[in-house]
Amino acid sequence: MRFSPGLLIVPILLVLVGCGGLALRPAEFAWPFESVYNVDSKGIASEEEQPARYFITFNAKPLLFEETGDSVHVADKKFRVIRDGLGYYFITGKDFKNVYVFGSSEGALSLYTKIPVSDKGLESPRFNQRPPFVELLNGKDKVKMLDKDGVKEGGKK
Amino acid sequence: MKQLVIVLAFLMVGAVVVSPVVSAQEQSDYEVIQGFKLKLNDIQKAIEKASTVQECVDIATRIDDLEKEYAANVTLLDKALYPDGYKGRITTVRTQLKLSQDKLGIIETQFARITDLEAQVKTLTDKVDKLTGENADLLQQVQKMGEAVKGAGAGKNMIDSLNRVINRLRNNIKDRDAMIFALVDSLFLQYDKSVTSMKDVEKQSLAGRLERRNVFSNIRKSIEDNIAFLQTTSLTSKDLVQMINEQKRFASQWKAFGAKLQGLYQPGNKGANQVKDVDALIDDWGKRADATFWRGLNLAFQERGMAVKPFNSGTDFKTNLIDFINGEIKNAGTDKKEESFKLYTSFHDSLWVTELKPAWIPLLVDSGRISDADRQEIESQVDHWGSAVSPSRLWIYLLILVVVLVTAYVMFRRKTPPAVAEAPKP
User: For A126, which of B28, B76, B79 is closest by C-beta distance?
Assistant: First the structure.
């Protein structure tokens, strides 16, 4: 039987479609409000409120080490976590100078960017979902509007 | 000018619109949700514990208040309280309350009556709070304006404005005092029985309601405002009379209410101490009112240049006033008659008929500072002074008599037909 190149067209097309991936757009990931996460003695952060709303847990040690240089004294630390509409996780905590933006990857949260928000450290940080932004409150400080790339309103860009 | 007014109006509207936004920024959505859940949880616990109709009414009011407080956050709460949602949670808690009422055998009409009374209490509490704020502003205004009026060159307009503010403050204080006691009445009425026949749980419930409605702090505030107003130097003697009457009214209402309260609290506990505090405050107010009373009454004479000797008791007042009048009556018999007449006219027109007789004297009699016989003696002495200094009216009567006689004579002459002249004989 003689080989005809035309026979390859269908399999090639199928492979191409498979490589491009099936995308369901638009998709909305925004949490309506933040969650408070507690860190246990092993360094695992999980939702404070029970029953949990999202059941997401993560290892907080690398984050605390990045922010404070200490990954030993991690128990009883608290984080404020919120997910924006694009699916990025915004994480910060008391005395943090930054808000960390993570994307999700296989079995991990991967740092997308680190947004500097306070020189002295945040006193009482709280997030609100304000599409398309995430609002950062800190006591009586001016409110900051964040997205995955940084501060958009209310602070240094 | 018009532009300036527009800009100012714009700024004021802006301030009103922006201020709640600024303060609202302080609370995060998470805190709003947690706050709601906490309050709802407290209400559910209260339903489990409720054992009287009053407690059930309280809980129903708390649910109403919760709904009002979170009306602006329904969408957020709906998401947070999935799958029941906000309305679902409120309905659940109301159903729990209804079941609890049924279990306790509470009759619907009884519940409705107490709910109405509680609504009255709430309305009165809101009004009292509003008047408290207004009165604080007015008191400040009175003090500032009083100082300005004392300064040189205070015009009539300024004095009129001050009097208007004083008048408003006086009425506000009176209204507020009345509302507080009406509020207390509505609270007691809900129990439909005397304190002595109340069960311990009812006593605790009533005490809790008095505490929640800030009854004691409102009463204290009323007394403090009254004392502050009493010490305002810009008050006229007429104002003082009214403020002293207010003290008497308040003290008598508190006497009735305080007796009920004494039965409500165990001696030595917080409530019993609060009753004692109010007793002491009213006592202090009474003393200050008494001092102000004599200051005001002395001032009423001094302001009009009447040389009545200073007094600070009912007996001294009567003696010194009668001495003064007697002195003036004596003067009437000498060459100082004209001066005494002028003084009498001033006393009579600007003090006696306007203030002393209608306000001060009844207050002196009612408060037991002078007797009714003393009042009659003073009145008779004032009449006597009037007759002694008034110009003699004998010549007026004579003149009238002459005029009447002349008029009668003239009329008589006109009516008499003239004698007809006889015709000349031809």
Answer: B28
Token pair, residue B80, equals 């947070």
Contacts A143 to B, Cβ<8 Å: 25
- CB contact under 8 Å between A32 and B80, yes or no, is yes
Is A46 in CB contact (< 8 Å) with chain B? Answer: no
pLDDT, one tens digit per residue, over B22-81 is 444 467 999 999 999 999 999 999 999 988 888 898 899 899 999 999 999 999 999 899
DSSP assignment of A37-88 equals EEE-TTSEEEESSSS-SS---EE-HHHHHHHHS-SSS-TT-EEEEEE-TTS-
Residue of B nearest to A30 (CA): B79
State whether residue A6 is helix, strand or coil: helix
Query: Tokens 């304006």 — which residue?
Result: B145
In three-state secondary structure terms, B426 is coil
What residues of B are in contact with residue A48 (Cβ under 8 Å)? none
b/e per residue B393-419 (b: at least 16 CB within 10 A): eeeeeeeeeeeeeeeeeeeeeeeeeee
Instruction: Report pLDDT digits (tens) over B367-382.
Output: 788 999 999 999 999 9
- Chain B nearest-CA residue for A138: B26
